[in-house]
Design brief:
With 139 residues, this protein is an alpha+beta fold. The chain has helices at residues 34-39, 47-69, 106-119, 121-125; strands spanning 5-10, 17-22, 30-33, 76-86, 89-100. It is elongated, with a radius of gyration of 18 Å.
Length: 139
């Protein structure tokens, strides 16, 4: 299985702008720019926000899996992923989950979430090597 997304950019980093499109097209030519990433005064998204969304979704599904494996059906699970950054880049991601699940203690729920924290695919990918390939178009 492969999932893809495309980014298009025109201009300098501060004055330019870009568009993001996902394979499903739920994001379709979605605006992103220096302003949407660092200033926040323009409508659009940014890589860190997308990482937070991906991590929140993956982690929440992993918690649901852990509960399902225990024979439990969550009534609701709500997660906020907070991506922390400083001048050197992303420093950490903090996941905050609130669950409504019958038949489980707070301690057991926390144990399931700790397992999901380590084992959801996005958590794992944050510590693996990244590779790239480049092609240059000559005019």
């Amino acid at each position: 299985m492969k999932r893809t997304a495309k980014a298009h950019w025109e201009g300098t980093v501060e004055e330019g702008k870009g568009a993001l499109t996902t394979q499903s097209e739920i994001l379709n030519q979605t605006n992103y720019s220096f302003r949407t990433r660092f200033v926040g005064d323009e409508k659009g998204t940014n890589p860190e926000e997308l990482l937070a969304a991906a991590h929140a979704g993956c982690f929440t599904m992993a918690v649901s899996l852990g509960l399902t494996e225990k024979g439990l059906t969550p009534i609701s699970l709500d997660t906020e992923a907070i991506v922390h950054m400083d001048n050197s880049g992303i420093t950490n991601v903090h996941l905050v989950i609130v669950g409504k699940v019958e038949g489980i203690s707070a301690e057991d729920f926390e144990a399931v979430t700790k397992g999901a924290e380590k084992n959801c695919l996005i958590s794992k990918v944050l510590s693996i090597p990244v590779s790239s390939e480049a092609s240059l178009i000559s005019e």
